[in-house]
Structure formats: structure tokens, C-alpha cells
Amino acid sequence: MNDVLTPTAEHPSTAKLPLRPHGKVLAVTSGKGGVGKTFVSANLAAALAKRGHKVLVLDADLGLANLDVVLNLYPKITLHDVFTGKAKLEDAILQAPGGFSVLLAGSGMVEYSRLTPEVRDEFLRIISSLVPHYDVVLLDTGAGISDVVLFAVSLASEVLMVATPEPTSLTDAYATIKVLVGQQQRQTVRVIVNQAARPGSGLAITNQLQQVLDRFVVTDHPIRLVHMGDIPVDPEVRQAIMRRQLLMQATPGCPAGAAISQLARKLEESVIPKPA
Amino acid sequence: MRLPFGPCAHIQRQVFKPPLALLTPSSQIDLQALQLDDARALLKHDAKDSQQEAGESPTGYLQRVIDGLCEISLKDPLTGLGNRRHLRSTLERAIETVARSGESVLLLLVDIDHFKAINDTHGHLAGDQVLQAIANCLADCVRPMDTVVRYGGEEFAVILPHCRPLFGRAVAERIRQTVASLSIPVAAQTNVQVTISTGGAYAPEWVRSTADLWIERADQQLYRAKTSGRNQVCLDQPQELSVSAEEKGLLFAHIATDEATMIRNLSGDAPPDSQGNATDRVNA
């Protein structure tokens, strides 16, 4: 599989993907924990699946995986068993409610929360064998700039940065974008503002981030932030999370649900080819 | 007496689960049946009153003995610092905190340079005195919230919670310089001076690492400090995550505007917009 995914020797925590032009692997990440990354990953996957895409969500938050909690799925076989060679990759993939596939990390993945050469290789192997089978692979990564997060993000052709309007979330999103620009030479980062207080605030926040980046981050390849959309504050979100249901299944028509459908549409316009 | 916050409070909960017999109200503990003599001797050695006091309940007495033993089990007898076991439990708690909060916690491993030479030249008693002096010095150099332990031999560990990456090196340097300036009396009219090598690593933020991996990273840095000439500090550099005050100022510019709008809306100068978002903000 090395012809598909060739890790670059100079940057041990990044890998080059010739798959990038196809725009299939998307990383959902954030600067700070608890801003709704996993919520966005799972519901965006459901929204994309509804539009006819074959989607897989991979729990790439090895340190604090909680996609299982969001989806209320506790499978016997997980990514951990694939890593330890106890199970085959195809046996660890399961169908999530919402019409997409998931690969859950499993609690044992804590041991792999540090990026060793073995973890890298296994990760690369797994993703490269998954990619040909799906239209979209969403990597639900951890927060921040730990080496595992940066590595997972490096595998994606597109980065979806989830942030909330809080100052701490913005600061961490900004810091993470700086690292992505510096370390991975990213030129585009797509911003999703979760818990937006009012229409238009996400765009304002994205513009603000862009301004600060333009002023303070000097590179030979200017970074461009693309505002993908806002998910408004909506009591239905809390309801769905507490019931451990997908919002896109429980109340797809609520404001937040409509916003996520809109996000899926926008992704289709910009990064993902329309389903055949 | 149960210590709610002592250094060993968390360990008691893990290790000393009361046997079922203690939980049934009818049963009384037969203190005679328990072989408490060794425990009492240990406690006495640690200058604690180990006798059952008049009017003290058997459970209370037993708890006091257990608390005393816990304390001893976490202490290094020579220096009075925490020991390796104490280090491990502190690291494990720190890892939990870091995984959830992303707080910066620094682990320093400190090793006395050429310690064997002191033992060889001045004898082992002198060596012990040096260890005690360094232990006191380390403890004096850090904040009360920090933990200093004797890791083993002439090696110490310092755990510094809430230590931002910016300050880590400054703290480690301050310790190194303070130790180097010490003149330690080891015999009549004989003072020795020692230096230390320090290796440090931050706990990886937002992930649950293991104590072993963390120690290993600090140890690699200590090795680096030793091999590049001793009497120096080497830190495992965490990823640059610094956002300057100017950057923040510009970053938060929109919030000021947002808040102003909200306050205006709430104070009734203007009606909330069509989505009723003035109220939303308050709920959020």
C-alpha cells in the first residue's frame, strides 16, 4: 500500500497523500476539546449519507475516543483489535444509525495515543485500505496539536475546524491553524462555527481569524479560511446528545439539523464529488 | 481520624477497601487478632503516637494506623521527600487532569552530577548529607503545590502542575543555579559543591498518556543533559502553541461588538432580532 500513502521522511508526523486531489479524506478537528467535534462528525456523516454518499467515520481520537458514546454503539470488535492483530479490518467496521459506517477506536486505543512508528504505519495501512471503498472518510480527530492529531489531520485532503464563539475556543483554533500552516503547509482550512449565537456570527468569526492570520502568520503560501457554516444554538442538540441519538435522525428539521444539512450540501459543492 | 486530603487519601480508597466484616454494624474489630505490632513499630519509628487512645473507637484507631502507614509508604526515609510510589500516583493523577483539561504539567528529572565521586572521596555519610541538602533545596525552590520526590539513588523528580511552557525552562534553570550555589557541609571544615543535570517533559495535552511514557521522555532529556556536559537543563519541547496578546486582542475584536449588541438588546434600546437571538445568547 506504500504507493498509495507515502510518509515523508522529513516530517515524521505528517504523510503525503496522492489521494488529496480526490478530496475524500476529511479531518474534523478543533483547537480545544468539547466544542462538538464528534457531534459534528457523526451528524455530518448522516447528512452526507442521506444525500447518497457512502460515508465512513473513523474514530481517530485515540486518546479520548467518544464516538461510541455519541452513537450509543459498543461493539465487540474495534480499531484496537485491528491494531493488535486480533481482528480483520472489515470485521471492525459497523453500520451506525444514520446510514453510514463507523470504525470505533475502542477503549484500549489509549495505549496508542502516542505516535510511534508502529502506530503511524498501522494507521496508514488502515486508511489506505479504507479509502477506495468510500466516497468520504471522515476522521474524527482529537483536539489540539498532539502528534497523533497532527498526524491524523495530515492524512486528510481537507480540514474542517470546529470552533465555538468562546474566546478560549477561538484562541486554540487559531493556534492550531498556525501549526497546520507551519507544519503541513495547509493552504485552506474550512471553519465550522458550532453553537453560533446568531446568524452571521460564524462568518464574522472566520473573517476575524483570517485577519489575525494575515497579520501575524507570515508564509510564502497564504492561508485561506473558508467559512463552511454555522450550527446555531438549539435545545434539540442537547436533547439528542443526552438521549444519545443522532440529531439528524431525531429532529433533522430543527435549526441545528437544517444547518448540518446545509453543511453537507456546501461540502458537496466544494470538496466532495456529487454521488453518481 | 480519616485524612480527607492527605497525600495518601486517594491511595487508601484504592488499596484499603474495608473488609466486609468492618461494614456490618454488629461486628466489632478484634484488635488483638490483628497483628499490629510491626505496624506500630514502624509508626513509632516515624515519631507518631501509635498507641490506642482512651475512648478511641477500634475503627478510628485502625484508620489512624492505616493513615500513618500510608504516609510512610509514600515517603523516602532519608530525605523525607516522597518516594517513587508517590511519584507514580502523582503522575497518574496529573495525566487524568491533563487529558481532560489540557493543563500544562511539567515533569523534571534531576540527577546529581558525579555523585559517586562524593561517596568515594568523603564517604557514604557525606553522600547522604548531600542528598538531604539537595532534597531540601529542591523543595525550597518550588511552589507548595509542586511535588518533589526522590526517584532513586541520586535522582529526584519534580512535578509542576499549571506550569506554562513559557516558564518551564526558567523554573528548571532557577533550580539548577540554586543547587550550584550551595555549599554543603559534610564534615568539620569540609564543604562540597555539586551540580545537577535536569531533563524535563510536559504531559501531552488532551490525551491520556501513561506514566512510563512520560518518565521516558523526561529521561531522554536527562540523558541529553548528561551527555552534553552536565550541569544543564534539557526540555522536551512541546509544540509551539503560543498566541501573543496582540493576536488575542485582534482575535476577540468581534466579541466586544457582539457583547455590546447583546447588552443594547437586553436593555431594551432595540428589540431582539427576528430569531429572538438576544435571549438565545443568555441561555447559551
Give a quick precis of the structure.
Chain A is built from 11 helices and 10 strands.
Description:
Chain A has helices at 37-50, 67-71, 79-83, 89-92, 117-130, 147-154, 167-184, 201-216, 235-243, 247-250, 255-270, and strands at residues 6-7, 15-16, 25-30, 55-60, 93-96, 100-103, 136-143, 158-163, 188-196, 224-232. By secondary structure, chain A is α/β, with parallel strands linked by helices. Chain A has one domain: P-loop containing nucleotide triphosphate hydrolases (Rossmann fold), CATH 3.40.50.300. In chain A, helix 1 crosses helix 11 (255-270). Chain B is α+β, with helices and mostly antiparallel strands and 284 residues long. Chain B has 12 helices and 7 strands. Chain B has a 5-stranded mixed sheet with strand order 2-3-1-6-7, with helices on both faces. Chain B has a two-stranded antiparallel ribbon with strand order 4-5. The longest helix of chain B has 18 residues, at 84-101.
